[in-house]
Specification:
Layout: H1 7-23, E1 25-28, E2 31-34, E3 39-41, H2 50-66, E4 72-74, H3 88-104, H4 120-137, E5 140-148, H5 151-158, H6 160-177, E6 183-188, E7 191-199, H7 202-215, E8 220-222, E9 225-227, E10 231-238, H8 245-262, E11 266-269, H9 280-293, E12 297-306, E13 320-332, E14 336-338, H10 344-350, H11 353-373, E15 380-384, H12 387-391, H13 395-406, E16 413-418, H14 419-422, H15 426-438, E17 442-448, H16 455-460, E18 465-468, H17 470-473, H18 483-497, E19 501-504, H19 510-518, E20 523-524, H20 535-547
Parallel strand pairs: 3-4, 10-11, 13-15, 15-16, 16-17, 17-18, 18-19, 19-20
Antiparallel strand pairs: 1-2, 5-7, 5-10, 6-7, 8-9, 12-13, 12-20, 13-14
Helix pairs in contact: 5-6, 11-13, 13-15
Amino acid sequence: MLPETPAPDAVVLAERVRRVVAALRCVHEGREITMSVSVGVAEYRLGEAAAQAIARADEALYGAKSLGRNRVQCHAADQRQPVVAPAGGAGRAADDAIRASSARLPRGAQCDQLTGLLNRSLLRDRLRHAMDRAKRNRRMVALLLLNINRFKEINDELGIEAGDALLSQVGATIRSTLRDADTVARWGGDEFIALLEDLGFESDAHRVAEKILDRFGLPVPVAGRECFVTLAVGVALYPAADCDLDALLKRADIAMREAKRWGENSVQLYSCDTAQPQSERLALKNGLREALAKGQFFLEYQPQIALIPQIDPRMPEARRVIGVEALLRWQHPVYGRIDPGRFIALAEETGMIVPIGDWALRTACLQNRAWREAGLPAIKLAVNLSARQLKEPGLAARVLAILEETGMPAHCLDLEITEGMLIEDLAANCTLMNGLRESGVLVSIDDFGTGYSSLNYLSELPVDILKMDGLFVRRLGAQERGRPFAIAESIVDMAHRLGLQVIAEAVELPEQLADLAAMGCDAAQGYLFARPLPPDEVAAVLARQDEAGPAGARPAPPLLAPLLK
């Protein structure tokens, strides 16, 4: 660091150092060894963070090294005179080459050709230097590995060119969210890495990751369509015990995979507990059949609450349960309670999702009958269908057979299917859903807004209910109703115009509930009302509600009104 020294003077000094080093000669075991040095120069700007100047100096150094040994390179943003090169005729020629190459550097071999971000090779160099500085300065470095969820679906549906365009937009959005001193690289495929230096606390990295996720709250236009992009973010910190460069990258990857298991737009910080035993995936995969046979699966039920017009939804007496969503759980004898995100994909792979799905539907219908036989009011029961189940021949016949076997009224069953699954084979799925609806079964579009959100598809699908994804709900509740409110309100209005009812998911705050009621949303579910409950606790809730009296004259959504009688 040279105080009060402009970049051109620093370049001259660096050139002197380079010449002195180049003139040194060492003899080792009778052999003469020559030395060379590469130098990167950047000028500190008043008011900026020191890390930003250091990052520019690093970039200049990489530029010097990429052009060969024995070079001095000044960062392009600080360059006010030609870069100094080795003396002599060859030096003048090299000087011309350096100046010509500096303009090409950002798009050269060091950068990903699609996104313009740094590539893996340069990222590893940056990371190595950042780790050295972190150790020397006793400051923290965070490595964020960001993976685009369900990118393959977009690539397959819209084409490779649209996928490439999406990758470029995602990379640019991540880059624009971070500081100039931070490094962003495309790690490969649908993965990006952000390198954050000079952090004081672990929470700083988590806040940056959340900030990135917030930037993807609005749909991204791709090939004339709007796609909602969600990310899984794994965070690894350095310095850390027993951690070198490759270990840090591995830890970020482990954390990212854990984030994917938690669901859309999740951030996970690596800890020793994050790492799963190498045999766990195989053990879970092989244990699915045994789990079904030995009764290790069980269901929990999350209440769905009607939002009654003209009644303040924040008042407890206004919260009337009109349905529950059945959620599958697994109590493993070794790994304990396992959430669906960790085993549903394995069940899909093995085909076990079909018998497990049939068990879940039958069990939920029997439970609904048990509640009715206990004198409790009839409520709607929502059950999720997986992609594999949807493709299985004879699904409609099996559903109707289970309804007859369990004595479950068809109008009380709501089958939830994600929009991405529905449009995969539109004609066949429309035929399937029409057959179910003719029998009285309700059909819902689950997680609406996180897939392709094509209005054309929505107008063709024979469905009854639209479930607004928590991605939209989490952004509600602000003092000033801005874009998030406008988008959610437009979804509700559009659904009503199409004759659909709307249920909002992941409601956690009273302010979010007030916004949903104001825009005319029909029903809601989330931790604000209740977490997923065991059957006996649902029965207690229904019993208390029954004692309080029927809905009476309170107006209710037309589709749900029969369930309040």
